[in-house]
């Protein structure tokens, strides 16, 4: 069952648990006004004991550098708890932001949330993050 965490006029964050993964679905804009809400929502889930995340960006209509920055910030927090992070359902427009920033290879990006949750999480897959190729 999907539970809402954040409701804002231009963005909503909800989550569900699938195969050991906490799937955080972001719907709307992730920008200077809303990025901190996404961060706080994930931190709340970490504090509640969730450590393995799929960040579903399939419904993100716009993301700026603040949005990308919040993904990096929550990655660090998840890593501190020996958790895992996959990113799923990324549109071409959002994927381009990862490309331009040089962070595409640092994340496990899956074409769908279903694919991202197909295998159960393993401990510490962020131990050597970032996984930048060079």
From TrEMBL:
SUPFAM superfamilies: SpoIIaa-like. It holds the Pfam family STAS. PROSITE patterns: STAS (PS50801). Signal peptide: none annotated. CDD domains: STAS_anti-anti-sigma_factors. Residues 11-120 form the STAS domain. Belongs to the anti-sigma-factor antagonist family. This is Anti-sigma factor antagonist. It comes from Streptomyces demainii.
């Amino acid at each position: 069952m999907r539970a809402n965490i954040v409701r804002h006029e231009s963005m909503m964050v909800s989550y569900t648990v699938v195969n050991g993964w906490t799937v955080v679905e972001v719907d709307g804009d992730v920008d200077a006004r809303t990025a901190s809400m996404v961060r706080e929502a994930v931190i709340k889930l970490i504090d509640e004991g969730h450590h393995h995340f799929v960040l579903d960006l399939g419904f993100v209509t716009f993301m700026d550098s603040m949005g990308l920055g919040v993904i990096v910030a929550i990655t660090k927090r998840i890593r501190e708890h020996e958790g895992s992070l996959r990113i799923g359902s990324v549109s071409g427009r959002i994927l381009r932001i990862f490309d331009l920033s040089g962070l595409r290879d640092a994340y496990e990006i899956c074409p769908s949330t279903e694919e991202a949750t197909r295998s159960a999480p393993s401990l510490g897959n962020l131990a050597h993050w970032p996984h930048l190729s060079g």
